Amino acid sequence: MQRVASKFGRFSALFRERPLVANMVTYPTLYVAAEFTQQTVLMSLDESRRKLGYDWKIMLRYMVFATTVSAPFLNYWYRYLDRVIPSRGTKEAIQKALTDQAVSSSIILAVFYPAMSAMEGKEDIFAELKAKFVPTYKLSCCFWIPAQCINFFLVPPHLRVVTVGICSFAWVNILCIMKRMTVKAREEDA
Q1: Domain limits of the chain?
Q2: How far apart are CA 174 and CA 180, in angstroms?
Q3: Angle of the 127-154 helix axis to the 160-180 helix axis, nearest 10
Q4: Where does the sequence pass through the membrane (predicted)?
Q5: Of 180, 179, 102, 185, residue with least CA distance to 145
Q6: d(CA 120, CA 134)
Q7: Would you give per-residue pLDDT tens digits along the chain (190 residues)?
Q8: Contacts of 188 (CB under 8 A, 6+ apart)
């Protein structure tokens, strides 16, 4: 048990001393792990997918997005949020969670779909954003507001991004499902 505590202490120290670097390693790992999990589940359910094997290009796109967008943005965003809304209790935790949902979730989703579409080489990189932003944002509210209330109320500031990263493992699985959903052309676009 002491070994685990010692390793956790070193892990925690890394996030205090080098938060950006630690988050830029942890966050992409969690994103890729979520996509890997998705592909594993899909292959177990579908023989034709199993024959194709893992799609490493998709995992690479998730890694690029998490490394270049999610981890750095969230690292600085949470530091800023801690300055403007200091943690004092339940009221501030709820205020932070709602602010985080309104600002960071909106920004991350608004960048996610076009960035992934651009990396996929799609012609209209905003088509998925238009079709999926609102339903994804609604799911995100149901998932992230409770998760962030807990995060802001119970978790020390230097571990908040990694806590979000761990929650992101579950969330990115949801996001992977949303990303895989087919975009139907709207009547006015057709």
Answers
A1: 2-180
A2: 10
A3: 150
A4: 58-78, 98-116, 161-178
A5: 102
A6: 22
A7: 677 656 656 766 767 777 788 878 888 998 999 999 999 999 999 999 899 999 999 999 999 999 999 999 988 998 899 899 987 888 988 999 999 999 999 999 999 999 999 999 999 999 999 999 999 999 999 999 999 888 888 888 878 777 877 888 899 899 888 998 886 655 444 4
A8: none
